Amino acid sequence: MTKSQAVALCFVLALSNLASACPGALGPSDATTGIKASVRRGPINPSGGQGTDNTSPVDSAVVVVSGITREGGFAAYTDSLGQATFTVNPGDYRVTVSDCPRAVRVPLPLTVTVTDGQFYPASMVCDTGIR
What we know:
The protein is mainly beta. Helices cover 11% and strands 38% of the residues. It has one domain: Immunoglobulins (Immunoglobulin-like, Sandwich).
């Protein structure tokens, strides 16, 4: 996915989320409940040692959070530390990486359950193809 396609996706998702102010919608509730996504890529070295971190954070990966039983969703780019934060209501969500720069494969989507007053840590690793 190109950067312009990702921007278009973010715009479409934002438009589809206009109803987020309605009770029970996917949209933000308060700043204490949500999903904190972390995207890394690896392996980064073909000879990574046992027990060492052979991954690196992904800047500008596109993370999409969508409701399992609701319409709409959110998308965001990760920062230089590979982090993206989404403020959402408690409930079940699917977290997907739709674009992962310098990787050959994105991770499988995660299904997460967000509880009130907590940020769910969603950690995903994109495959670089290095072996």
